[in-house]
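Schema walkthrough. Field components (list of strings):
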Amino acid sequence: MSIRLSNISKTFGQFQALQPINLELPKGQFTALLGPSGSGKTTLLRIIAGLEHADQGQIFLDQQDVTRQPIKDRQVGLVFQNYALFRHMTVADNIAFGLKLRKLAKAEIHKQVMALLEMVQLPHLAKRYPAQLSGGQKQRVALARALAINPRVLLLDEPFGALDEQVRQELRRSLRQLHDQLGFTSVFVTHDQQEALELSDQVVLMSHGRIEQQGSPKELFERPQSRFAFEFLGHNNLFQGQLQHQRLVQGQAWLQLNATSSATSEQGTVLLRPHELSLANQASEQAHLPMQITAINLVGPQVQIELEPQGWQSDKPWQVGISHQQFHQWQPERGQLCFAVPHLAHFFASHDSPPQSLRFEQLSKSSQLVDERQLAYNSLT
Amino acid sequence: MLYRRSSLGQSPWLKYSLIGLAFVIMTLYVLAPLAFIFVRAFSQGWANYLSVILDPYTRHAIGLTLVVALLTVPINLLFGTFLAWLVTRYEFRGRKLLMTLIDIPFAVSPIVAGLLYLLLYGSQGLIGGWLDQYDVQLMFAWPGLVLVTLFVTSPFVARELIPLMQQQGQDEEEAAISLGANGWQMFSQVTLPKIRWALLYGVVLTNARAMGEFGAVSVVSGSIRGQTNTLALHIELLAQDFNAVGAFVSASLLASLALFTLLIKALVEWRQQQQLNTSLEDSQ
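Field assembly_structure (string):
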């Protein structure tokens, strides 16, 4: 079941929740609506579900115009943020609710409920009440209940919002498995960029009721197309400065720009992402960004190093990720001085202008590993 | 520190004296007067008690009280549920005003309410005058009693439901609709079970007040024996006639009706608890 939205807009009183939105979600895809709170992602999901009516525009499910179709005829499965299980019904009755409304025979209902419970791995909890379940179990029941009506589309509103990390990862995995197994079209709302990029085939990034960018997780992560997209998709290190002779300069620090980016304005900002940077004891020829190490976090697949600018300023401390192997070879310590060496940077002439990518030559490995004396010498000059 | 804590909450001496105090106060405030009603009512024996009840005026008063309650409770049950649904499920202009209006019958003295109804619906009044042309008389007749009782008891159900429904939200209702329920199925299978205890409590309060209402009713009734005399008004008439035993017998009836309502409430709550317990045992 494919979903197509054409010029959908919505206002609540004075507040424009959705600017006219056009969106196409192909059949069988897992799509994430990603954005901060107030970006309109939940409103959009509720409009697709039929819980909310768009002021303008049309919704098509498989080319069929369902804009005026009431929700109960749309056959969409809904999983709510707080699960919305019927509190006065047992788990089995919750799942059977949609089946009973379809007037199936009792034996058939029982069979299907048990099959659904097997699917979400909760057959032993059939007689429990929602209040007796953990968050993760509630989520599974909500999923089974939504799947019971054999939905054409599965819509999930912040499905993992209220769960702790471990349960969340487990549920993400099983949701993705179910999706691949059953082949329905899924849309889920989240404010967690990691969740969106990990789980989905397609990410729709939203802000202020507009679609900011849309694409596969890879496209989105590798090529954010606006300042907002950069800021929402992970940590960014900021370098603001004045343009002087094709360089962006602030205090003792500078960064080489290319001809196109330096022609347009007098000042600018460069965003540098933690994975597009490395650290060295020597500045490169294209960037001079002296730093002092303020914190080292070893937990995780990468070593996170926090840095304080030396001889220039930044609102937030910088973060750079290096591999554990690199860390062992280099053995940096807190308080040590070093240089940030960018491989890739993103130049913004103003806040709203599109980013221009700056590519830098990779450093040779030898210059990254220098002994303490040379480092001390470098920091003096 | 340990010593202090025990002296605050754990001392058995303090605990039992507080419990004792509570019982003494409740006895003085509630139990003693209630018991006194029954003692006085039966002071001249069962035979006399029965004869007072079988008195046609008393019987009529009982009947009228039940009729008023039987009409008022369902109407305000529907009205209160509808109102609570409206203000908790929709955003609209005047919603705040509506929620304030719900409280007016609580804020206004019943006797003032009775007077207002008399002025508006009496044969000299704005609406009453017009109705009079069609030979419809509301005041000093049973419809008037029902009208003022409706007014006085209108907030109970809505007041019980609104905070609960606000807190519960409407996710479950939305889930029901997405699973294919129509409006009635959603209300009867999802909303109603969620609010049934508050609803029942609202009904109990409405009923108690409808049977016992005196102030507003006394203005619009005219206290015509055998016609517009409810039990509460009947008690007053008997007391004015210095028929103490008669007054107490009628009072004991009214009190019994109230106790009976509370008993039903307690029974329903107990049953609910039983159900919950068995379901808990089943699942373990």
